[in-house]
Q: What sequence folds into this?
């Protein structure tokens, strides 16, 4: 494959997060920008403003890759599928979903510390999100990641972002959410100054948050979430995000995720 250097791969394995410099070229950034603009102009059923009442707008939406093919094709005709394969050590890469997140200038909504995996209807070790910003991002606005928090693949109680209450349903099988003190854990925190073309890759098990956007510019980003061949369906006894089972996905525990819902974007020759 040869898309990434050894140091980047080692950082991803050790920290559960790594920065990818210059991984998305001008043509693909333009296509993704058009797709985000189209998505904002015509949100899907899950699109909404996540901002607090007194905050600048914070648009979020997901699972629109069929309407906006660039979200799929950047991993297929583009090379992000091959990048994901290298990071995961996978022979086959599927798009789990895309997630558009746009924080307007002056947005005061912070996303609290969380771990993505418990919100999803899947489990496995071959997972990676590639967070692609389309605007310059400073460390202050960049999501923060707790390096090494993916090790052991522990899963923590999934919580609502505004109240921090556990999701409705049975969450008793998860570990209690860890206390994260950013001052105490400063040596493990990772955030990055990013330019358009850069991206961040992180494991679904890696703990992370997202600060508000108190700058004078937009922060447009799309998180492209990929899975490898060891990932299987899990029937979680609580709410899901995205709510694929409510959307009609019907599988047995241990099934592979079907390609009509989760398209294959890269496969070893």
A:
């Amino acid at each position: 494959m040869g898309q990434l250097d050894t140091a980047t791969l080692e950082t991803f394995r050790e920290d559960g997060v790594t920065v990818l410099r210059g991984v998305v070229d001008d043509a693909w950034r333009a296509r993704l920008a058009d797709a985000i603009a189209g998505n904002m102009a015509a949100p899907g059923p899950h699109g909404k403003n996540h901002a607090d009442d007194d905050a600048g707008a914070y648009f979020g939406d997901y699972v629109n890759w069929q309407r906006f093919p660039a979200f799929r094709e950047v991993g297929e005709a583009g090379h992000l599928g091959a990048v994901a394969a290298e990071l995961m050590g996978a022979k086959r890469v599927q798009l789990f979903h895309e997630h558009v997140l746009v924080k307007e200038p002056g947005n005061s909504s912070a996303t609290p510390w969380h771990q993505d995996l418990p919100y999803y209807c899947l489990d496995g070790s071959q997972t990676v999100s590639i967070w692609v910003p389309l605007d310059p991002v400073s460390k202050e606005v960049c999501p923060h990641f707790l390096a090494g928090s993916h090790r052991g693949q522990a899963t923590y109680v999934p919580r609502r972002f505004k109240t921090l209450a556990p999701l409705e349903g049975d969450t008793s099988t998860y570990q209690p959410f860890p206390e994260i003190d950013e001052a105490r854990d400063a040596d493990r925190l990772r955030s990055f100054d990013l330019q358009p073309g850069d991206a961040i890759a992180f494991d679904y098990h890696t703990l992370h948050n997202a600060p508000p956007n108190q700058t004078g510019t937009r922060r447009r980003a799309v998180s492209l979430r990929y899975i490898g061949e060891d990932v299987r369906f899990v029937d979680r006894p609580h709410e899901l995000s995205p709510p694929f089972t409510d959307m009609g996905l019907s599988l047995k525990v241990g099934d592979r995720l079907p390609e009509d819902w989760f398209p294959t974007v890269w496969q070893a020759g």
Observations:
- The two ends are 10 Å apart (CA to CA).
- The chain has one domain: 6-249.
- The chain is about 15% helix and 25% strand.
- The chain has a mean pLDDT of 94.
